Structure formats: C-alpha cells, structure tokens
What we know:
Layout: E1 2-11, H1 15-31, E2 44-50, E3 53-64, E4 67-77, E5 84-95, E6 99-110, H2 125-136, E7 141-142, E8 152-154, H3 158-169, E9 177-180, H4 192-198, E10 204-208, H5 214-221, E11 232-235, E12 246-249, H6 251-256, H7 261-281, H8 287-309, H9 315-362, H10 380-392, H11 398-408, E13 413-415, H12 417-424, H13 432-453, H14 455-458, E14 467-468, H15 473-476, H16 479-483, E15 486-489, E16 492-495, E17 499-502, E18 512-519, E19 524-531
Parallel strand pairs: 8-10, 9-10, 13-19
Antiparallel strand pairs: 1-6, 1-7, 2-3, 3-4, 4-5, 5-6, 9-11, 11-12, 14-17, 15-16, 17-18, 18-19
Helix pairs in contact: 1-2, 3-5, 7-9, 8-9, 10-11, 11-13
Amino acid sequence: MLVYTNAFSILGTDSSQACLRAIHGWLCQQLDHSPSIAEVQKPGVIQGQRGNSRSHLRTYAFYEDDGRSLAWRLKHPDDGTSGRQWVVEIGLVIQGEARTDFSVTVQTEELSTLVDASVRASRPRLIGFILDNVDDASDAEIDPSTPGVGIKRAGRSTDEFRALAGVIEDPGRRSPLVLVSPTREGQYLLNRRHLQEQLFGLAQVVEIHPDFNSYEMEQILGRWWSAWDGAVNVIRTRLPSGKVVGNVIRSFELQDQGDTQDARIAHILRFVTHNTNIPRLRDHISPEEIARLAMRARLDSRIRELEASRVEGSERDEELLNELIEAKAAIERLRGEREQAQLTVLEKEDEITDLQDQVRKERYRPGSMPSDQGVDQSDPQTLKLAIELLSERQEPSPRAALQLIQVAFQDRVIVLPSAFESAEKSEAFQHKQRLFSLLLRLVTEYRDRLQSEGDNAARQVFTPSEFAATESEPILNSRDLMRARTFDYKGSPVPMPRHLKIGVADDVTKTIRVHFHWDSDSGRIVIGYCGSHLPIPGH
Length: 539
C-alpha cells in the first residue's frame, strides 16, 4: 500500500552535498552502522540491523557527463505488526552544479489479507533531515515553487477571500489547499506550524483569521470551499471533469482523533496524501528508472560499437544490431505503459471522488424528496419562481426563500402559514442571499446533526451571531413575549424560542429572525416565523 510520496527540488551549488549528507545520516540510523558516504552511493547491497530486525538496503546508480542519478530501496519489517514490511524508496538526480531533484516514497507490503492493522500517515523523518541540511548549507535552498514552504493567511479582509478564491480556481494549481478555521472562541484545534511542516511539499496550509466574517467567506468561496467552527477543508486539485472538490473535516471529527496534535495532523495527512500520492509518484526517481537509464546507456553503447565494427553483409551482425534496437524500444514502451497505468489509477480515483461528491449532493437535490406534505414538488408557480431567480441572477426574497426550501426539502422541513405571513412583511430585507444560505444550512447540515448527534453538535453548524438555542430569561418568563414566539402546529400552540438571526438593529432592511421547532417524530424542522425582530422587554 502506498502510504506517502513526495518530490521537490533543491537549488544551489551545495544542493547535492546537502541532500547526500541527509540521506547518508538517515540510512546510517536505519542500518545501525555507519558505511561511508561514498559506500552508500555505490551500486550494491548493504545488510543492516533495525532494532531487533534486519534491514536491507540496495543502491542503484547511473552516471552521465553532466550529472548523476541515484536511488535507494530500504526494506525492514514492521516493529509492531507481524507480516508487514516497510519499503522506503529514495531518489536523487544531480543536474549540473546548481540543481538536485529529490523524491521519496513509503509503502507497506503485507504477507496476506490477514494483516489488516491500520497504517498511520506521517511525514518520513528523512524530509526533516533534508530540510535541516539545506538550512545549514552555505549555498542551497528549497525551490521557491515547492508548496507548503510557509503558512498563508486569509480572512482579514474581503480582498483576501477573493484572492483565495482565485488560487482555488486556478487551473494551474498542482497542490491541495488546507483551510484551517478557528473555533467560535477564536482558538484552533490544530497547530498550524506543525501541520505545515508535515505537509511540506504536498499542500499549502491557509490559516483563517480568528475575526473572519463567515458570511463573507461563504458568499465568496461557497459552502463547499469554506470552513468555520474549527473545521478543516482539504480543497483538492482540479478533477479531470474540471470540478474542484473540498473535503470538510469538522471539529468533532478532529477531536475524535484524540487530544494529541500528532493524531489530529495524521488524520489530515491521510486526506492530503490520498490526493497527492499518485501525482507525486509520477515525479518519483525510482530504482527501476535508474536501472532503466543504466540499461539504456549500455544498449546505446553496444549499438554504437556494433554499428562501427559490423562487417557489411554479415547477417549475424545485422540480427544482433536489430535485436538490441528492438530491446531498447521495448524498454521505452514498458516505461510508457507503466506511466499510463499510474495515470489511469489517478483518473479512476478522481472519478470515484467525483461520484461520491455527486451522491452527497443528490441527497439535497430537488425532486429526490418524497411528497408527503401535500405540496406538489412540481408546482408550476414555485418552479417558475426558481427558474426566474436563476435566469435573472436575483436573490430570493424571504418568502421566495421559504418556498424554495419547502419544495426542495419536503421530508426535512415544514413551513407554517405564520412564517409565510411574516416573510411577506420583510420583503425590504436586504441580506437575502445570507438568509437563504442560513435556511439551507438549517434544513441540511443542522437537521442531520440534530437528528444523529443532538443539539450540542448541531448548533456548531452556525456561529453564535447566527443562531440562538433559546431566548433570554426575561423573555422566557414573560407570557406576552412568549406568546409572540408561539405558533400553531398540528392544531396546538408550540413555543419556538430557538431561532436564526441576522442583524441586531430594529431596521427591517438589515435584521431578520427565523423561529423554528424540531419535530423529532417526523424528523422535520418546523419554521413558524421569518420576519422582523419579535418584541423584547422594554420595547
């Protein structure tokens, strides 16, 4: 199983020596003895000891006039899982005097399907060795185009969100983005510096500012590229279909990994490497590639010798020359087939992810809901309204938003007549798209988590400025004020202190409240009110 792959370049006249020193030092640890730096560059096999188990190192080398290519394959048993072997491949291409390309892969080989213990994702210590030696070198630096050299930040202004949207949509982006959002208290569940170190060369960490505006984020980035309340969004590179998919890892999922940063970051790394392993593998300097280069060089040399020394008319010389030329062509063909197979795997994985995204969205698609509330989901007036809004790019009014939500999510929401009546009085409300977004979140993410995990988990879908689980004590203790928050449902008065909120002013153009009730028996959100701020003490 492919666990980890990385590839990047180091620039400068000391780049090759910095890499060789790092690789030599790391190999000495794995072999438990100290062959010289020259020995580990010679083709051949070195046996070693790693703890109580034997380790096995094979070196591959190919030399040219303007550079050299080296590869190492280290194998050793898993210390804790019987029947599992770890295979680490390291590649190095030294190009002239000022550039060195480095790559590494980590894989496991299992003896049989009985070996089913999970593998924890982590960055190989060798990467740290490379970075430390590059820092210590007088003339060496990581190629500036390498992703994840430092942490990026967003959320301090609208312009930063717009810039981030541009990066996300950039067709040339070759690495995932990892958005790390703060909790409602302004804290982070992940150490961003440690996370970026683990994702070096693979992905770019983007820290969302603690004082960011979640409405602006959702308005500019959209729900699938946003993150809030401590969640992390791993935004993949563009799929072959052209889509850009985000994998949201919510705060409770991170906390379920445990209290340690290592466990939480390992969980993020799993999502990242799932996106990067195959593309990085295409840049890997494998032992097979070094062996192929050496074999091709020998064939080229032999072909030149035969062409120079062959006797005109000698059938034997002609046959041998043709056989060598065919062998060279076969090597190139096999290389191309191998690369195409890797590309096919990548495309299939992307197709699977694309289908999973479609399945997820299908749950909320209009027409996929049963019609058991007496509302015809093919109602011509409502469908006409939706088409007009889309075609004219208009934001739905409060009443139109309720209509669309009711038709699209009939098995999740019931909109009472009192809600429609109050919405009609709030036609002047300006933040229409924000209201529609809150309603959509209410009947999808909030409703799902309320049903499966309870109120404490569900309320994390919203920020404190968007949601209130109840009213203040003075309101709850006032018969008149609570009467204004009580609505007729199934022939009975039902108090609805729980509400969504936008704005705090008395101005109906800037403020709105959505009071609702959770009917656990039917599994539906019941919206009783959608209008201006209801009366409070002293008003």
